[in-house]
Known about the structure:
The protein is of the alpha/beta class. The protein has a domain at about 35-110 and about 140-205: Alpha-Beta Barrel (TIM Barrel). The protein is built from nine helices and nine strands. It has helices spanning about 1-15, 25-30, 85-95, 110, 115-120, 130-140, 145-155, 165-175, 190-200; strands at about 40-45, 45-50, 55, 65, 75, 100-105, 160-165, 180-185, 205. Strand 5 (about 75), helix 3 (about 85-95) and strand 6 form a beta-alpha-beta unit. The longest helix is centred in the N-terminal third of the chain and has 16 residues, at about 1-15. It comes from Homalodisca liturata. One of its GO terms (biological process) is carbohydrate biosynthetic process.
Amino acid sequence: xxxxxxxxxxxxxxxxxxxxxxxxxxxxxxxxxxxxxxxxxxxxxxxxxxxxxxxxxxxxxxxxxxxxxxxxxxxxxxxxxxxxxxxxxxxxxxxxxxxxxxxxxxxxxxxxxxxxxxxxxxxxxxxxxxxxxxxxxxxxxxxxxxxxxxxxxxxxxxxxxxxxxxxxxxxxxxxxxxxxxxxxxxxxxxxxxxxxxxxxxxxxxxxxxxxxx
Length: 213
């Protein structure tokens, strides 16, 4: 499918970047903290701070940054279209392309959206329901389905995590024992969400890709 082709092409591109010695400093900003695609956040007595070290250990002990090989995350997001079989195909494609980790998106719809937003008519040709709530619900896996996907990722030896889109989902991700928690760029200024994640003392990546402030 087009989705799998795009994932394969993207991962192939990043695989080429592994051969450039400068890739680590390009992503992590060398030994100084610079705003880039990823900010690493640490927590010290629940005080937020951006680490100045180019190396961070994931929850499974794997180092990222510094002289370590480029850590490639395959962004699956919700491209699975709410289908577990498609999600597994994407996980396998990521593994075959040499990615280190697959990342999904996890939302608790009642926590993240207002009732009026969920009830809003959503009649796009790409909609999975008559309302925005129905559309989003179709794209959310159940806990059992996520457990099945996490187990599959473990079986083929690729890390599994997700972006936490709200405070409830952040807690769920922690209960899964993910190697790190990701905050999407749309929430890069969501201080309450970031503090919630930081208090878990789990490695935290914050994207700034769509943050133009």
